[in-house]
Amino acid sequence: MQRSSYFLRNSISLLLCLAGTLYVHATEPADSAASGKRRATWSQRLTLGGYGEAVMSRNFYSDSYLRYTDAAAKADAKSHGRFDLPHVVLYVGYDFGHGWSMGSEIEFEHGGTESAYEIESEEGGEYESEVERGGEVALEQFWIQKSFCPQANLRLGHIIVPVGMTNQHHLPTEFFGVYRPEGESTIIPCTWHETGLSVWGKTKLWNHESSLRYELVFVSGLDSERFGAQGWISGGSASPYEFKIANTYAGALRLDFTPLRGLRFGLSGYLGNSFRNTLRETDNEKNAGVKGRVTLAAFDCSLNRAGWVLRGSALYGHLTDAAHISNFNRTMPSASPSPRQFVASDAYSMGVEAGYDFFSLSRKLRDRQRLYLFGRYDAYDSMWKMEKGTPYDWCGRQRVAIGFNYYPLKEIVIKGEYARGLLKSKYNDEPSISIGVAYAGFFL
Fold it and tell me: Between 317 and 131, whose confidence is greater?
């Protein structure tokens, strides 16, 4: 009876907090100093932080673009190494007061981009533009938020679409691998960010360890021109223009249920049309009725107790009118940013990882440092089912990995792993060794 009463009080708290917020805003003075309250300093309102990764890999397989079409000739290829900065993100937030706040993230992928003009002495002193460094720079988040109470928050701007486990938990301290989990990050955008609005909140349930968090998102739809074979819909959130086309819209929902401390279950989904998010002419009889509706359903869970960390996820996606979109994209001009490839009607990914903190066995180390030995398994296929065309067998694969995560501090992790991509027998497996260092935390 006591639990039922506690749950009832929390389930109606959303309505009560909205009413209370309206009353407080109507009665509070414009300047808190006038009422004798001490105003927070700028340093107390400002939040600075971020995360970053530096990685070195050695891949013991061919890096030729022909490694799948001519696999036999590439069986004895030499290994090749890479240094990379997968993600470096700077976060700035500010609390304006009265429930209003701002958050922003700028992300540098793979070292950012560098380009410059040079005068070439070998070419008669001509100016020449050169790309000195590849990569991407993106504004991953920029939003204004109004918080009414913990159960009700409104966020407007450029936000994360919280579909799948990796989009919601993408900090390098939230997964064991040196790189982000391969399955989800291959077939859907990751980290997926769009401009729109979200309503979110969190409430306690039957005790102080149990909670339910929800988030409802409204954003522009994906662009089917960017869909392709190997990445399925993952390129659809990007825009080659100075704006994001929003001829179609989409919605996403996420629920995270924590029944007890250290245990979490998550459900997420997405629904939206993608075909008409283009500058090309689509309003004609040939394209009548084509919507390119994208449907995603995902489940993920995590357990963090007694030195063990277990994580698992599964995602299924369906695209309507996939054959029509494939033909449409394959007729694009060669200068188009479209990959001009067949795209599947169905794709999936699943993964599970488990690690144990061996420092938890030591009284001296357990509260200061952590050392996880872990294993991970992934399976995914970006061309699982086709409406038209022959799927590429190499797009369906499994991956196994073993490694370690050493945390000298809570915010810093040193990672190492041996991984092996397992492909069908007519292709060559893809073994690799990687080591990396990463941080995630706040400076202010």
Answer: 317
Establish whether the linkage from the previous residue to 390 is cis, with ω within 30° of 0.
Answer: no
Query: What are the tokens at 407?
Result: 């945390």
pLDDT of residue 241: 81
Q: Helices 2-11 and 13-27: crossing angle, nearest 10°? A: 50
Asked whether residue 27 carries a pLDDT value surpassing 50, the answer given is no
Q: Check if the beta carbon of residue 286 is closer than 8 Å to that of residue 328.
A: no
Show the tokens assigned to 331.
Answer: 């007729």
Q: Three-state secondary structure along the chain?
A: CHHHHHHHHHHCHHHHHHHHHHHHHHHCCCCHHHHCCCCCCHHHHEEEEEEEEEEEEEECCCCCCCCCCCCHHHCCCCCEEEEECCCEEEEEEEEEECCEEEEEEEEEECCCCEEEEEEEHHHCCEEEEEEEECCEEEEEEEEEEEEEECCEEEEEEEEECCCCHHHHCCCHHHCCCCCCCHHHHHHCCCCCEEEEEEEEEEEECCCCCCEEEEEEEEEECCCHHHCECCCECHHHHCCCCCCCCCCCEEEEEEEEEEEECCEEEEEEEEEEECCCCCCCCCCCHHHCCCCCEEEEEEEEEEEEECCEEEEEEEEEEEECCHHHHHHHHHCCCCCCCCCCCCCCCEEEEEEEEEEEEHHHHCCCCCCCCEEEEEEEEEEEEEEEECCCCCCCHHHEEEEEEEEEEEEEECCEEEEEEEEEEECCCCCCCEEEEEEEEEEEEECC
Give residue 264's pLDDT band: very low, low, confident or very high (50, 70, 90).
Answer: very high
- Provide the whole-model pTM: 0.86
Res 185: pLDDT: 93
Mean pLDDT for the stretch of residues 99-122: 74
pLDDT band at 24 (very low <50, low <70, confident <90, very high): very low
Other CB atoms within 10 Å distance of the CB of residue 86: 19
pLDDT of residue 7: 42
